[in-house]
Structures are given as C-alpha cells and as structure tokens.
C-alpha cells in the first residue's frame, strides 16, 4: 500500500473516536443501563402517519335532581323526569329531546320507589321524534300500591335508548 492511500495514526484515532461517538458505547448487552433515560415513543418525532387516538370512554353522566314546589325533577342528559304525588298515585312526566341531526326513536325506562320495599317501572316509547324536537308523555305510577306512597319518591332513569 502506498503511503499516499494509508491513514496516518492521527487519522485512525479520529476515525475510531468518531465511530465510538456515532455508535455509542456498548458492553454487548441489548438493554439500556438502569440509570439511562429512554425517550417515550410519543416524544420521538416520526414521519410515518400514526393512527388517530381514540378518546377515552367518558364517564356515565350523573343525574341532576331539583324541585319545583312538590314536583321532583330528575334530569339525565337530554331526558327529564318530573314526579308529583297526587291522590291517584305519582304523576310522572317524561320529556326526551332528540339532539341528533336526524329523526329517531327514543325509549326511556324509569323506576320509582319508596327506597325501602316498593318499586315500579315504566317504559316511555317515543316514535319518530324529529331532530331538535322534544317528546313528552305522562302516566300515573304506583296507583295500585296499597301502602303509603312517598311524598319524595326515589326516581331512577334506568336507561335511555336512541334508535
């Protein structure tokens, strides 16, 4: 080999130092040392498109309870139940709003009880509710109950189904 094509000892040292800096020091193991920091995949920029992040499941909405005179009002999302005790039983009105951009059906299941030993359930079925409209229906619940009906009944919106 001619002296012209051979690397000088200083060049070999620089080449070795450059190789070590680029490749990094390694003891042959394929894992990082315990005290090193590994960047998380989300912090590393990537040119490849990533899949869209799905939103976390939202928690179930909590009912809001209010009173208007002797009427107890329970609101859950776009559904409102109003219950008032009268001489025939508990008058229950269900109002459900279709907030979708198309006509749809809504079924609301409501349970009313005294919190002890009596519960009655009713289904309100609203058919073909136009977008943005509110459907209303009322019924008397607990009329056949032989005990004393509560003045402040427990009201549960068991489920609301849009279809």
UniProtKB/TrEMBL annotation:
<feature type="signal peptide">
    <location>
        <begin position="1"/>
        <end position="28"/>
    </location>
</feature>
<feature type="compositionally biased region" description="Low complexity">
    <location>
        <begin position="36"/>
        <end position="64"/>
    </location>
</feature>
<keyword id="KW-0732">Signal</keyword>
<feature type="region of interest" description="Disordered">
    <location>
        <begin position="31"/>
        <end position="64"/>
    </location>
</feature>
<protein>
    <recommendedName>
        <fullName>Lipoprotein</fullName>
    </recommendedName>
</protein>
């Amino acid at each position: 080999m001619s002296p012209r094509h051979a690397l000088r000892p200083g060049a070999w040292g620089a080449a070795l130092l450059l190789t070590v800096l680029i490749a990094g020091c390694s003891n042959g193991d394929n894992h990082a040392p315990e005290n090193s920091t590994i960047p998380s995949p989300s912090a590393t920029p990537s040119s490849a498109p990533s899949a869209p992040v799905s939103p976390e499941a939202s928690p179930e909405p909590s009912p809001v309870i209010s009173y208007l005179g002797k009427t107890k009002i329970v609101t859950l999302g776009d559904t409102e139940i109003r219950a008032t005790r009268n001489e025939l039983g508990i008058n229950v009105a269900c109002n459900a709003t279709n907030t979708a951009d198309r006509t749809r059906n809504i079924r609301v299941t409501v349970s009313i009880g005294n919190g002890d030993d009596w519960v009655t359930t009713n289904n309100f079925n609203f058919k073909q509710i136009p977008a943005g409209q509110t459907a209303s229906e009322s019924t008397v619940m607990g009329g056949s109950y032989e005990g004393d009906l509560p003045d402040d009944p427990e009201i549960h919106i068991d489920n609301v189904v849009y279809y």
